[in-house]
C-alpha cells in the first residue's frame, strides 16, 4: 500500500499489470486490427461449424425451416436463420475487409506516434459489421420468402436449375456493371477515403466503417446471393466465394473481376441447359 501511495503522490495513477497490458494493446492500432479480424472471423466460422454439425444439432432445425411453411414461423425459427446469416457474413466478409481495416490502423498508428488523438479500429470494424448484419437481416427475409414460394429445396439450395441459373447469370452480369467497379475501387483504395474523411471521435470512426460497409455490400451483394443457388449452408462455396471476394479487393485489376463474371455466367448457362436437357424427349423420366 505504501508503494501505491508513493506512486499516487507523485502524480501517477496505479494500474494492475493486466490493465496496463490491455492499455498498451489498445495503444497499438495495428495489433487491435489484427486481433479484431482474426477473432471475429474465427467466431463466424465456429458458429457455422456448429450449425452444420451432424446429429440432432442446429442443422436439423434448418432442415425444418426449409420445408414449405403452412403457418407463420416462430420467432425462434426466424432468429435461427438470422443467426446463420450473421455468422456467414462475419466469416466471409471480415477477411476481405482486412486491407481496409489495416489501412486505417496504419494511419492511426502514425498519428499515435505523433501524439494525436486516435480511435480504436474496433469502432471501424463495428460500423462495417453493422452494415453487413443489416444485409444478413435482408437475406433472412429473402430466404424465408423463397422458402414459402418453394424456390428452395430441403438442402437450402435452388429448387430448379432455371432459378439457380438465373442467380448465377445475374451475379455474373453485375461483375461488369459500373456500380460494381465504383464500389470495388473504394474497397481497393481505402487510403484516399480515410485521408479525406479522417475522424478522431468514436462516432466519426463508426460512420467511416458504415460507409466502407456500404461500399463493400455494393461490391459483393450479388455474389453473396449465389449461396441461394448452391445451398445457403454450403461451407465449401462459402469459403470459395470468400476467397474470390478477398482476391478482388487486393487490387488484381479488372481482368480478374471480368473473369469471375464470365465464369458465373457460364455456370448459370450450364444450370439452365441442364434443366432444359432433363425435359427433352427421351430424357424425361
Helix content: over 70%
What Rg, in angstroms, do the CA atoms define?
23 Å
The number of strands is: 0
Q: What class, by secondary structure content?
A: mainly alpha
H/I helix tally? 14
**CA-CA gap between termini:** 87 Å
Main pleated sheet: none
The SSE string, one letter per element, is HHHHHHHHHHHHHH
- In the predicted model, the low-confidence regions spanning at least 5 consecutive residues are 1-27, 54-61
Percent strand: under 5%
Q: Provide the number of structural domains.
A: 1
* Mean pLDDT across all amino acids: 80
Shape: globular
Provide structural commentary:
- By secondary structure, the chain is mainly alpha-helical.
- It has helices spanning 2-9, 17-26, 29-51, 58-66, 75-96, 98-113, 121-148, 161-174, 178-188, 190-196, 202-224, 227-230, 235-250, 254-277.
Question: Short description, anyone?
Answer:
By secondary structure, the chain is mainly alpha-helical. Helices cover 75% and strands 0% of the residues. Helix 9 (178-188) packs across helix 11 (202-224).
Name its key features.
single chain, mainly alpha, disordered N terminus
Topology:
Blueprint: H1 2-9, H2 17-26, H3 29-51, H4 58-66, H5 75-96, H6 98-113, H7 121-148, H8 161-174, H9 178-188, H10 190-196, H11 202-224, H12 227-230, H13 235-250, H14 254-277
Helix pairs in contact: 3-5, 3-6, 5-7, 5-13, 7-11, 8-14, 9-11
Amino acid at each position: 500500500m505504501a508503494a501505491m501511495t508513493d506512486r499516487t503522490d507523485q502524480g501517477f495513477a496505479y494500474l494492475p499489470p493486466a490493465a496496463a497490458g490491455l492499455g498498451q494493446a489498445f495503444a497499438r492500432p495495428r495489433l487491435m486490427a489484427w486481433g479484431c479480424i482474426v477473432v471475429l472471423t474465427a467466431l463466424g466460422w465456429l458458429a457455422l461449424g456448429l450449425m452444420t454439425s451432424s446429429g440432432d444439432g442446429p442443422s436439423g432445425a434448418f432442415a425444418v425451416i426449409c420445408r414449405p411453411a403452412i403457418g407463420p414461423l416462430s420467432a425462434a425459427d426466424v432468429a435461427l436463420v438470422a443467426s446463420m446469416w450473421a455468422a456467414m457474413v462475419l466469416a466471409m466478409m471480415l477477411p476481405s475487409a482486412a486491407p481496409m481495416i489495416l489501412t486505417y490502423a496504419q494511419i492511426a498508428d502514425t498519428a499515435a506516434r505523433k501524439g494525436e488523438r486516435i480511435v480504436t479500429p474496433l469502432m471501424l470494424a463495428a460500423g462495417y459489421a453493422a452494415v453487413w448484419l443489416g444485409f444478413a437481416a435482408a437475406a433472412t427475409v429473402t430466404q424465408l420468402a423463397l422458402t414459402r414460394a418453394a424456390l428452395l429445396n430441403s438442402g437450402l439450395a435452388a429448387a430448379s436449375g432455371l432459378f439457380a441459373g438465373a442467380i448465377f447469370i445475374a451475379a455474373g452480369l453485375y461483375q461488369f456493371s459500373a456500380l460494381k467497379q465504383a464500389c470495388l475501387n473504394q474497397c481497393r483504395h481505402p487510403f484516399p477515403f480515410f485521408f479525406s474523411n479522417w475522424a478522431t471521435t468514436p462516432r466519426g470512426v463508426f460512420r467511416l466503417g458504415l460507409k466502407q460497409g456500404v461500399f463493400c455490400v455494393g461490391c459483393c451483394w450479388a455474389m453473396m446471393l449465389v449461396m441461394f443457388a448452391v445451398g445457403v449452408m454450403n461451407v465449401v462455396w462459402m469459403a470459395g466465394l470468400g476467397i474470390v471476394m478477398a482476391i478482388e479487393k487486393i487490387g488484381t485489376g479488372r481482368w480478374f473481376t471480368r473473369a469471375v463474371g464470365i465464369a458465373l455466367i457460364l455456370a448459370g448457362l450450364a444450370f439452365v441447359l441442364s434443366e432444359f436437357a432433363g425435359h427433352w424427349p427421351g430424357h424425361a423420366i
